Amino acid sequence: MKKFRYKAKDSLGKTVTGLVEAVNDRSAAKLLRNKGLVVIDLKPSRENIFSFFGKLTKKVTASDVTNFTRQMSTMINAGLPITEALVILRAQSSPSFAALVTQILADVEGGESLSNSLSRFPKIFSPTYVALVRAGETGGVLDKVLMRLSDNLEKTQEFKGKVKSALIYPIIIVIGMLVVSAIMIIFVIPKMTDLYSQFDAELPFMTRLLIGISAVSQKFWPLVIVSIFFGILLIRTYAKTKSGKLLIDSLLLKIPIIGPLNRQVVLTELTSTLSLMAGSGVAILDGLKITRDVVKNSLIAQAMDDISLNVAKGFPIAYSFAKHAEAFPFILPQMISVGEETGKMDEVLAKVSHVFETESEQKLKSLTAAIEPIIMIFLGIGVGFLVISVILPIYNLTTSL
Predict the structure, then answer these.
(1) I want to staple 112 with a disulfide (CB 3.0 to 4.6 A). Which of 92, 107, 236, 262 is the partner?
(2) Contacts of 53 (CB under 8 A, 6+ apart)
(3) Cβ count within 10 A of residue 400
(4) What are the TM regions of this chain, as residue ranges (predicted)?
């Protein structure tokens, strides 16, 4: 959202000035006209340093979107027009989300459909979200679609929260190990090296290795930093290419423990989205194409592209999924086949999604249980290496005196 400074005349002919937030100048002008103002001048507002840093703290969160979806569903189900529901939600929302709702309200009051207005904010409302809202509008079941969508968003948020919580501890430990190692190599080891050289002591291999690493880091630290920076940049650049993303995503699925968990998480989201699409009246081919954009793994996304092509040619959905055993477990095409035969695709996919979610949570618990002792072992080895490398020469010196 951008800020525009305007000068306009109201219904009484009085000149008024102020700020308005909108996606672009055209939307800003439309918003002002809807307020009964005749625009005289409209230009982007220049931000000072305080407003710039204030903007950095404002962000539309996943919780904002979930609350918006659930409350919209409740109010539409109660018989409120969409415009009234948006006015109420604007008053209840955070400043950043209220500005967004203001723009949506202006669009809807100007004759746009809710789905068309939401599609203008792809970073906030995904293609899946927009497609489901559009299907709800077309079928006259917008409240039911929004309710299912809010349930899905809440489950997704909850699961992502569990994954993040499981990964926070090992990440903190690893960062702590790296910081301690850096302090030892940069500050402690050089001082100990002076001590060792004064006594002309015979140093063990581990100590000599640590001193060598410290000396290289001290002497060539600019080169080390530049090498690390360009190494990360090179990997990131390659990861953005089609072949690089495919290679990295394929490797991620093969990592022990983490790979199967990653696959289950992707499949949970995929089947959940497909279930929502099928249950909301979205055509299966459109649902497959939209779901493909939801998938975060390029190997599975590539398989979804081929599945869409096969379904477009008239092949059964289950058969199209079964062709990609490298991406999908055997249970998925089997259950999809049941859904095709019974005509209850959304219910079947919802059950499969629940199975994948349960398996994901079990794998997550296994990962959490396994990762703590593994980290403690590596931490012990790392600390032991540093302590022995520093203390052993001192011990040898004291015993030789």
Answers:
(1) 107
(2) none
(3) 9
(4) 167-189, 209-235, 374-395
Q: Where are the beta strands (DSSP E) in 147-275?
A: none
For range 292-309, the mean pLDDT:
88
Predicted confidence (pLDDT) at residue 260 exceeds the cutoff of 90: no
The closest alpha carbon to 142, from 79, 65, 60, belongs to 79
- Burial group, residue 70, by CB count within 10 angstroms (0-12, 13-18, 19+): middle
Single-letter amino acid, residue 199: F
Split at pLDDT 50, 70, 90, the class of 387 is confident
Structure tokens at 154: 């809440």
Look at strands 15-22 and 2-9 and give their pairing: antiparallel
Three state DSSP letters for 338-355: HHHHHCCHHHHHHHHHHH
The total of other beta-carbon atoms located within 10 Å of residue 385's CB is 14
Listed in sequence order, the residues at least 6 apart from 203 whose beta carbon sits closer than 8 Å to its beta carbon are 196, 211, 393
Which domains does the chain show, CATH number per domain? 2-57 (3.10.20), 62-125 (no CATH), 142-401 (1.20.81.30)
Find, among 209, 214, 208, 220, the residue nearest to 191 by Cα: 214
Q: Spell out the long-range contacts of 330-333 with Cβ–Cβ below 8 A and sequence spacing 24 or more.
A: 331/355, 332/267, 332/271
Q: What is the CA radius of gyration of the chain?
A: 29
Tell me the residue type at 155. Answer: K
Distance from C-alpha of 203 to C-alpha of 185, rounded to nearest angstrom: 17
d(CA 348, CA 354): 10
Of the listed ranges 163-177, 259-273, 331-345, the least confidently predicted one is 163-177
Smallest CA-to-CA distance from 287 within 341, 217, 336 is with: 336
Mean pLDDT value across the chain: 83
Q: Which residue is listed with tokens 């979107």? A: 65
Q: Chain-centre distance of CA 196, in angstroms?
A: 51
How high is the pLDDT of residue 82?
92
pTM tops 0.85 = no
Query: How many other C-beta atoms are found inside a 10 Å radius of the C-beta of residue 362?
Result: 12
Taking the C-alpha atoms of residue 24 and residue 142, their distance in angstroms, rounded to an integer, is: 28
- How many CB atoms within 10 Å of residue 87? 15
Which SS3 state, helix, strand or coil, does residue 293 take? helix
